[in-house]
UniProtKB/TrEMBL annotation:
<keyword id="KW-0808">Transferase</keyword>
<keyword id="KW-0547">Nucleotide-binding</keyword>
<keyword id="KW-0342">GTP-binding</keyword>
<protein>
    <recommendedName>
        <fullName>2-phospho-L-lactate guanylyltransferase</fullName>
        <ecNumber>2.7.7.68</ecNumber>
    </recommendedName>
</protein>
<comment type="subunit">
    <text>Homodimer.</text>
</comment>
<comment type="similarity">
    <text>Belongs to the CofC family.</text>
</comment>
<comment type="function">
    <text>Guanylyltransferase that catalyzes the activation of (2S)-2-phospholactate (2-PL) as (2S)-lactyl-2-diphospho-5'-guanosine, via the condensation of 2-PL with GTP. It is involved in the biosynthesis of coenzyme F420, a hydride carrier cofactor.</text>
</comment>
<keyword id="KW-0548">Nucleotidyltransferase</keyword>
<dbReference type="InterPro" id="IPR002835">
    <property type="entry name" value="CofC"/>
</dbReference>
<dbReference type="Pfam" id="PF01983">
    <property type="entry name" value="CofC"/>
</dbReference>
<dbReference type="GO" id="GO:0005525">
    <property type="term" value="F:GTP binding"/>
</dbReference>
<dbReference type="InterPro" id="IPR029044">
    <property type="entry name" value="Nucleotide-diphossugar_trans"/>
</dbReference>
<dbReference type="GO" id="GO:0052645">
    <property type="term" value="P:F420-0 metabolic process"/>
</dbReference>
<dbReference type="GO" id="GO:0043814">
    <property type="term" value="F:phospholactate guanylyltransferase activity"/>
</dbReference>
<comment type="pathway">
    <text>Cofactor biosynthesis; coenzyme F420 biosynthesis.</text>
</comment>
Length: 220
């Protein structure tokens, strides 16, 4: 299957905001740590995209380096960046968020091989975590808020065949402290290593498990 995807040479764009990222993790990470952890998640997403036989391209708001991965700097907002990139581009394209720390080869392949004109992997709380479009120029990004509903409506209004990707690994974006436990349990890459290296541990919280960081205070 990876060979098949590779033959399709589908570019996978990864929007990435390296400066002041993941503000919803401010309660448990310092400013510098948020930047470093966001970068670790980006590395895991890039690895998953490469494992799937695809070509990652980082669309970043500021300079970033990651091995041989091409980076385009576009300082506009997320929707403007994606739409500018899609304009006039007849080819297939996927857009995968940089905070999908659980993404892996098979979840990326499932996104790219659904058979739809527009494949949408919903995220927690109404977001859109990953998208495939058969023809990039037919897509208008509508991220933020209930973006999942907006993208489905867009597809319906434009008579695109929509496939909803039922993928736990693409569904879990890492936005808040409660999401970090998923990294502990299901990520085996840079993101989990980074959390462990920075003192995070699994903790029993009332009836559920979560993470804790013993001894950490934001004044550290
Ligand atoms: N290129 C680009 N990427 C963005 C922009 N805003 C967010 N992103 C990326 O889009 C993805 C989803 O965004 P969010 O989950 O809101 O991430 P975030 O803005 O770092 O986190 P919060 O501050 O907690 O909202 C992440 O991969 C971000 O790096 C933007 O303005 N431009
Ligand atoms: C970009 C945004 O991400 P979230 O804030 O839902 O993580 C969305 O999916 O529309």
């Amino acid at each position: 299957m990876a060979t098949f995807v590779s033959k399709m040479r589908i570019p996978v764009v990864i929007p990435y905001k390296p400066i002041n990222p993941k503000t919803r993790l401010s309660c448990i990470l310092t400013d510098e740590e948020r930047q470093n952890f966001a970068y670790m998640m980006l590395r895991d997403v890039v690895d998953a995209v490469k494992d799937a036989g695809c070509f990652p391209l980082i669309l970043a708001t500021a300079p970033v380096e990651l091995d041989d991965v091409p980076v385009q700097i576009l300082e506009e907002g997320l929707n403007e960046t994606i739409n500018g990139f899609c304009e006039g581009n007849d080819d297939p394209l996927a857009i995968v968020m940089a905070d999908l720390a659980l993404a892996d080869r098979s979840s990326i392949i499932s996104l790219l091989t659904s058979g739809g004109d527009l494949a949408i992997a919903p995220g927690r709380g109404g977001g859109t975590n990953a998208i495939y479009v058969r023809s990039a120029k037919t897509f208008k990004a509508q991220y933020y808020g209930m973006s999942y509903e907006k993208h489905v409506k867009y597809g319906n209004d434009n008579s695109l065949m929509i496939k909803i990707i039922d993928s736990f690994r693409l569904y879990c974006d890492i936005d808040e402290q409660d999401d970090l436990i998923e990294v502990f349990i299901h990520n085996q890459g840079h993101s989990r290593d980074w959390l462990v290296g920075h003192g995070f541990e699994i903790a029993m919280k009332k009836s559920r498990i979560g993470v804790k960081r013993p001894g950490f205070s934001l004044s550290d």
